[in-house]
Design brief:
The protein is mainly alpha-helical and about 400 residues long. It is built from 18 helices and no strands.
Length: about 400
């Protein structure tokens, strides 16, 4: 039975400000997907280097770790409406610069670095605002809407971007992406003006202090590590779909998205509140375990089922985010959620590079097995370590959460 203590999806979209926040985020995700594919194609045509092409696409994610250590204090110290609109306009301008004819590759990477730095701030502002718009009980359901929207738009964006690149040049596609970013800025302006959640001016020193404060709590630290590492290692498995089976890569990506969608719906809406805290670890195990079978090179139908089943485990991130919100004071919610977002994307970029390196020297199937085993090992280690800090066991025990709060 659905958990009636939280709002339904229809109720969420009737909540003031939720719809413009979702639509603005959707336009930004579509722009990011199309621009990433176009930029990777442009760099590959200019350099004939698969490594540089991959770095151009993952560069913004990898740069977020730097932004999280320098600018993230602004997530709670800046007005959300103006910040989200301003960041979208900055992305539109940067993407338009990437489309300039004759722009050297080193300059493209400089722009990509800037995009990664400002993206780390945008995640904190967006998720902190979502935490303000929705009640604590509804945050998980609302975040599941964003997760599903992101997954569907990435599939549609890559498909549309691939089709556009067959008839248009990469630079024209980049200009289209810039237009989508400008649309995201316009949608953000439909949000209500709100004051910052915390007082004081954003600064590098404030970012470091708050990062240290968030990291100092052992239960919260374990949640961060569980959000970043097991998830990232499995994304490394996904990054090998093309080399694992080039003809079926699209099918595998679609099945992974379908499994993620099912997991988000189940955790975000169907599971009762009393069961969710118990499923954090089992979902992380489910996230990695099916990839161990791919070492045997099963037939495509079974591979597709295993990939979809594994991706249901991504629903663990919703459980972990709910715990993170419970562990964090409201005035630091934007910073805390932005740190989660930046760390997760960084871990995914590093894992994709690591998986590709292992596959280069062994095989894609072997690399998937290595990444899946590493994910399971991290989950086991975090579970054992967390139980030392809690009376009643588990990765995110209820009493430990209340005590830390």
């Amino acid at each position: 039975m659905p958990d009636t203590s939280r709002k339904s999806y229809a109720d969420l979209f009737r909540t003031p400000e939720f719809s413009p926040l979702v639509l603005s985020s959707a336009a930004g995700t579509a722009a990011q997907t199309v621009s990433g594919l176009a930029l990777g194609t442009l760099v590959f045509r200019a350099t004939n280097s698969p490594l540089l092409s991959a770095v151009s696409m993952f560069g913004p994610a990898l740069a977020q770790v730097l932004g999280a250590t320098l600018f993230l204090s602004g997530a709670d110290r800046l007005a959300p409406r103006a910040t989200l609109a301003g960041l979208s306009l900055a992305f539109a301008a940067a993407t338009a610069v990437l489309a300039l004819p004759g722009l050297p590759v080193w300059a493209m990477f400089a722009v990509v670095l800037v995009e990664g730095l400002i993206a780390s701030l945008g995640g904190g502002v967006r998720w902190g605002l979502l935490n303000e718009i929705l009640s604590k009980e509804s945050y998980l359901t609302g975040r599941s809407v964003f997760n599903m929207m992101n997954g569907l738009l990435q599939i549609a964006g890559y498909a549309a971007g691939g089709a556009l690149l067959t008839v248009l040049s990469p630079r024209v596609c980049l200009l289209l992406a810039a237009g989508l970013y400008a649309t995201a800025a316009g949608l953000a302006l439909r949000l209500t003006r709100r004051p910052p959640r915390a007082s004081g001016r954003p600064s590098v020193a404030a970012t470091r202090r708050t990062n240290a404060l968030l990291w100092s709590c052992a239960p919260r630290r374990h949640v961060y590590l569980a959000l970043w590492i097991p998830n990232g290692l499995v994304v490394g498995c996904e990054s090998l779909y093309v080399s694992y089976d080039p003809r079926a890569a699209g099918t595998l990506f679609a099945c992974a998205a379908l499994g993620m969608l099912a997991g988000d719906v189940a955790v975000g809406r169907l599971l009762p509140a009393r069961l969710r805290p118990r499923l954090g670890v089992p979902l992380l195990v489910l996230l990695a375990a099916p990839y161990l079978v791919l070492f045997l090179r099963p037939p495509l139908p079974l591979t597709a089922v295993l990939v979809a089943l594994a991706s249901v485990g991504f629903g663990a991130s919703l459980v972990q985010q709910e715990r993170l919100v419970a562990l964090t004071p409201d005035e630091l919610s934007g910073h805390a959620l932005g740190l989660h977002s930046a760390g997760m994307l960084t871990a995914q970029g590093v894992a994709a590079a690591l998986a590709g390196t292992v596959a280069q020297f062994t095989s894609p199937a072997t690399a998937m097995t290595v990444m899946a085993l590493a994910s399971l090992a991290v989950t086991l280690t975090l579970t054992v370590t967390s139980r030392r800090h809690a009376e009643d066991g588990g990765l995110w025990p209820t009493r430990a959460v209340r005590a830390a709060g």
